[in-house]
Amino acid sequence: NERQEGRPSKQRLLVVANRLPVSAVRRSVDSWQLEISVGGLVSALLGVKEFDARWIGWAGVNVSDDIGQRTLTKSLAEKRCIPVFLDEEIVQQYYNGYCNNILWPLFHYLGLPQEDRLATTRSFQSQFDAYKKANQLFADVVNNIYQEGDVVWCHDYHLMFLPQCLKRYNSNMKVGWFLHTPFPSSEIHRTLPSRSELLRSVLAADLVGFHTYDYARHFVSACTRILGFEGTPEGVENQGKLTRVAAFPIGIDSERFIRALELPQVQDHIKELKERFAGRKVMLGVDRLDMIKGIPQKILAFEKFLEENPNWRDKVVLLQIAVPTRTDVSEYQKLTSQVHEIVGRINGRFGTLTAVPIHHLLYRDYEFGFITSCNSERLLNDRSLDFHALCALYAVTDVALVTSLRDGMNLVSYEFVACQASKKGVLILSAAQSLGAGAILVNPWNITEVAASIGYALNMPADEREKRHQLNFMHVTSHTSQEWAATFVSELNDTIVEAQLRTCQ
Ligand code: G6P
C-alpha cells in the first residue's frame, strides 16, 4: 500500500459507473478476454494526471460462480477496474427495467408506451427495489476499497441512490454525482412514483453536476417544488446542508482525433472511401440505436429530400452507422425493426442496380464514447467499427446529421468537427447545446425543415462552410473532456474543504 510505505501518492479517484470501461468475454473457466474502451470518460480521466483513477462498475456479464468472480476480479485489477457482480434477476429488474424502461425514457421526455403504462405501474415497485439493491451493491464495493482522502465520483441515472448509500457508510466521504442525460422539467420528474427518494439521495452528494445550465435548473426546481427545499445560487439547501449544483459541459479528447487523421492507416481508409463514393456527396449519421436519437425521423427527412430533389438522387448517399443497444428491452427491439423497415422501403424506392441511397450499418462498438449492452446474438454480424475507420468516415463526410430528439450532450457532433479540418463539412444539429454557433440548427420532429436543411447544407458555398466550421472547431478544441473532468473533481475537492471549514467555525 503506497500510503503505508510513505511514498508520495496521488489522490485516488474512485469513478463509479454502471458499466466498466471494459467488456469481458469468458474464454474458459478461469480466463477472460478484456477489451477496453478508450472513448468518453476514460480519455477524460486519463488526461487528469493529478489523480490516480480506479473504476468500479458492472462488467456487463453474469458471473455466478466463485472461480469466475475471482479470476475476473484479478484480470480487471490490471486495468484498475473493480467489478460489481449483478445477477440476472437484478440486471433484468434494475438495468433493463428501472433504468432503461423507466428513468431513461422519462428523463428524455418520451414517456411510456401506452400499452405498457399499466403493466409498468404494477411492476414499478419491484423494479425500484431492485434499483436500490443494485445501488447498495455498488456502495458495498466502494466502501470496501475506500481509503481516507479518496474522492468518489458517481455517474449517471443508474446510480441516483448511491450518494445516500455511501454517506450512510461514511459521512466524511467526498461524493460527487454527475448526470450524463438531461434532467427533465420538474413537471415530468413529478410523475415518477419514487420522485422524492431519488432527489433526497442525490442531494446527499457534496457536488451534483449536469451538462447544461438548464438541466441543473430543472433539478433545483424539482428539489424546491417537490421536496420544499430552498434553491440558492449555489445549489440546494436544507436544514443548513448545502448541496452544490452546477453545469459542467463535457467535451472530447479532440487532439486524439486530430492526430489520428495523420496516421497512414486512416489516410488509407480515407482514400478507399473517397474512391468508393466518388461523384456523390456523403452524409453521415452515427448513433446508438436508441429512441432518443431520432433515427426514423432523420431517415424520413432524407427520403423527403430525395422525393423533392430528383436531381440529387444519384449524387448523395447517407451512411447511417447504428450501434444496437439495450437489446433486451422491447422498445429497442421495436425501434430496430422500424428502422430496418423504413430503410428497406427507401432503398427499394430510390435505389438502382448499382447504388442505394442509404447504407444502414450495424456495428457492435468499442470505440465510441461508450460500450453498449448489445446482446450480440441479435446482431447478424458481430463486428465493431474501429477508431481509425470512424475518423476516416468523419473526415470524408460532407454533411453530418446529428438530430437527436433529446440528448444529454451529443459528442458525435464534436468528433465530426474535430475530423473536418480539411473538408469543412456542414453539421446539421438538433440539440444546440454548446455547438450552436456554427451548425444548422433544426427541429428534429419537423421532417420538412430537416429536408430543407439537407438541401441548404449540400449547396452551401465554401466560404460559409469555412466560417461555420471555424466556430465549431474553436469550441471543440477549447472544451475538452480532460478539462471537464479536472474541473469537476477540483470543484468537488473545494466543496468539501468549504464544508469542513464551516464545521470548524
Ligand atoms: C448513455 C448513458 C451511459 C451509457 C450509454 C450506453 O450514454 O448516459 O451511462 O453507458 O448510454 O448505454 P448502455 O445501457 O449500453 O450502458
From TrEMBL:
* Claim: RNA-binding is one of the keywords in the record: no
Q: Name one GO molecular function term.
A: trehalose-phosphatase activity
Q: What is its EC number?
A: 2.4.1.15
Q: Its GO biological process terms?
A: trehalose biosynthetic process
Signal peptide position in this chain? none
What does the similarity note say? In the C-terminal section; belongs to the trehalose phosphatase family. In the N-terminal section; belongs to the glycosyltransferase 20 family.
The protein's name is alpha,alpha-trehalose-phosphate synthase (UDP-forming)
Organism whose genome encodes this protein: Acer yangbiense
